[in-house]
Structure formats: structure tokens, C-alpha cells
């Protein structure tokens, strides 16, 4: 395998990135099942397909899937750009990266409390009020406006992912931040599509999830707080460095 290919494989399969990507996907999933997102799914489904209510059930499944996929694409583009930007920030201030990650760790701890309902000033939702024309053409634009707003169940988890992106920008590979944001969007977007189809088929009740939403939010908040403590204490950076060192002790052979 060529040197460039081996380096790429080694990077993608590295322990630190796999660990962070797993956390990013889980953060996206937790955001999806939160009270700020899950109840809104039927409305988004109706909007991006140009239909609502009983008429939605009469529409072909492909239109529902395409509409929500375009919606997911819209917020994915915005989040990936943000991930790349934060990773670039880590690269730009690489010599102060340790301090920067500690500061962002404190932000993530605060985000964890916000996710669980703390800090009342941050519990208000702020969304762009302008709406594109309902239907498939407006779906990606609606997704972008969803990404550009603030919701106490999405903003905190995204903040954690963007903070992790900073820790991967120190070696100049800023695309890793984009990858983390993309994985976060998979965790948030794939359930969107699955639930949209379930709603279309008349089976999107999710009774168990609704019944345990409080527990899910608490677990998600604790997850963010623990991650923030690791980052603020320096353990996260030390852990990533240690894992990276272990990976570099092995040669990727394909």
C-alpha cells in the first residue's frame, strides 16, 4: 500500500479518532431523542414533503425519505463547516492547544448542565423565523436554518463535538473536525429518516422513548459533564496523546 494510503488508513483507524467519533455519534442520537427535537419530527416531515396530517400517509415513501434526507443534508453542511472551522482553530493555536481545550472543557461542563435543564437563560430556543417554501426544494434550506438556531438539546451536544474537533486540529489535519461533525450528523440524521418513514407508515409513536426521555436527557447531560471534566483537567488531551502514541507503534499493513 502506498505511503499516503497507509497514513490515511492509520489516521482514520486511530484509537483517538474512533473514540471521539463514537462519542460524537452518541451525542447526535441523544440530541435526537431529546424533548427539543423528537416532538418536532412530524412537523418537519410534513413541511419538507409539502404535506401534513392524513395526506402525508397517501404520499409515496420515496418522497418522505428524500425530503428528510435533504433536510438532514442541510444541517449536515452547516455542522461540517463548523467542525472544520473549530479544527482549524485548533491548528492555528496549536501551541496553546492544551489551554484552549481546558477552557472548552469548562464550556462543555456548562453545556451538560444546560442539556439537563440548568442555566435558565440558555433554555430558551432561538431559531431563524424565516421559512423556505414547503416541499423538497426548501428541505435543505430548512435544515440549514435548523442548524443555525439554538436549542438547549442540540446546542450543548454540538458544543461538545466542536470542542473535541479542536483537539484534533493540532497536527494540521483539520478535516478530522469535519469528520466528527459528520458522524454527529449521522447520529442525529439517521434516526430522523427512520422515524419519518415510521410516521409515514403510521407507526411512529415511540412510546418507550417518550416515557424515558427524562432519563435519556439526564444520562446525556452526565455524559457531557464527564467529557468536559476530562477536557478541563487535561486528561482528555493526555489520553488522546497516549492512544496516538500506541497507534504509531504499529505499522499499518494492507
Automatic annotation (TrEMBL):
Predominant location category: membrane
GO biological process, one term: cytochrome complex assembly
UniProt entry tagged with the keyword Membrane: yes
Positions of transmembrane segments: 17-41, 62-93, 99-122, 134-158, 178-199, 219-239
Keyword check for Kinase: no
Keywords: Membrane, Transmembrane, Transmembrane helix
Pfam families documented for this protein: DsbD_TM
UniProt membrane topology term: Multi-pass membrane protein
Chain ranges of the Cytochrome C biogenesis protein transmembrane domain: 21-233
InterPro entries, per database record: Cyt_c_assmbl_TM_dom, Cytochrome_c-biogenesis_DsbD
Subcellular location: Membrane
Any GO CC annotation of this UniProt entry: membrane
UniProt similarity note: Belongs to the DsbD family.
Protein name: Cytochrome c-type biogenesis protein
Classification lineage: Bacteria, Bacillati, Actinomycetota, Actinomycetes, Micrococcales
